What does this fold into?
Amino acid sequence: MRKSTGHKIVIIGCGNVAWHLAKQLAAFKNYKLFVYNHKANSLLNDFKTKLKCSVTSNLKNIVTDADLYFICVADKNIASVAKRIKTKNSNAIIVHTSGSAKINELGDRSNTAVFYPLQTFSKQDEVNWKEVPVIVEAKNAAIKTKILNLAKEFSNNVISLNYKERLKLHLAAVLVNNFTNALFVAAADLAAKDKKILLPLIKQTVLKIQKLDPLAAQTGPARRGDKRVMEKHLKLISKNTELKKIYLQLSNLIIKQQAKKHA
Amino acid sequence: MRKSTGHKIVIIGCGNVAWHLAKQLAAFKNYKLFVYNHKANSLLNDFKTKLKCSVTSNLKNIVTDADLYFICVADKNIASVAKRIKTKNSNAIIVHTSGSAKINELGDRSNTAVFYPLQTFSKQDEVNWKEVPVIVEAKNAAIKTKILNLAKEFSNNVISLNYKERLKLHLAAVLVNNFTNALFVAAADLAAKDKKILLPLIKQTVLKIQKLDPLAAQTGPARRGDKRVMEKHLKLISKNTELKKIYLQLSNLIIKQQAKKHA
It folds into this structure.
């Protein structure tokens, strides 16, 4: 990447992924960064003041000779943003960073690729990029090599996958991050003033599966088929129809997962 | 505990909780440990060979002058085990370690208590007892003081709660441990050969809520109300009726949790 295509990178969008991409690219020092956002706000301004990027909210001001464009916007806006990119560099590569959008959202151009970092990003959190899996797809072999090389500057964990495999991992990410977090919210509600009391258990739950297959790590009343305990829990949340349904369904999932294991 | 009631402790059961209790009590060095299990098996034998406990599978052989009995058996067996304890020591305390059983399962005795460690225990894993929340309940104030003191030898995180509060935390523990783990199993299925790829995300999910309220840490398509992405996910699992239901319900939970936050 560095030698063959030069150093100008445009980042489109100023959300959490854009932020951590720019922060890391800035740390590499051999890229010149330009950030565009559809409106001038404090998020955009942070790229200027904290990461020394050139920033603009006017599409006409974007450099036309960039080597790479990172589109870091919501899936539904990728296609329209991609269409509006005007470049004089016929080798410029256009990349999106989504786990759930097809590469074709970038249009018919041949120089397109996907660079999907499988991680949850928050601006205020540090990211250890070396550990972040980066999933790559590209329209052709030459572009793929370039994007794989760039991804390897970020991470030790780069893999090349097609759309369906990427979407499966994106769904898996929703399960282990979004849904797990929703359970944390529900649990914190139950624990009320004792919220913090659950943190050591949550930590241990995750430590366990670093070593054990999660199927083997499973414990609890559903795993044991302990109906008495399950009934006590259900009685406790008898007025919370939603949590009750989730309790029944996830208990059922555990029972089936374990049955499959023993089958 | 040490000075006033002496040093003989009987542990009933030889599962994961019994193991880690005995291991820690053995490390304290000032207790003499006796372990009973209803059958002589290799689990029971490990207490003898690895922790230097006296072990027996014959109830008649249990010491009758113990100061404390830890009942570490399944909820449904607590009452019958408690009934069968014969002691000549009128000050002996009988304790169960369950998150979901009432103290009354120990019978009408006045010297009873609950010592519930809110953690997931596996024999092969190390436990950092200092961090394990221990939830205590007792039949009377004098017993409570003794059990609180014992619990504080184990942990820096000891609290006294009634049955309903304890059961709520037990349910919360099921959500953050058992159900979260079931989602890990489902996600690993989706990731197939790339299972390990989810570990950094899982780690980050948990790191995030050490600092942020989980309600604020929530991200993802349900949080954003991104129906297009949700439909892609649902199409991907259209043949997996169960996972589909869970997807819809947990997405719905996220939407309601976030609406409540903004209300």
Observations:
- The radius of gyration of chain A is 22 Å.
- Residues 1-5 of chain A have pLDDT under 50 and may be disordered.
- The first strand of chain A starts at residue 8 and ends at 12.
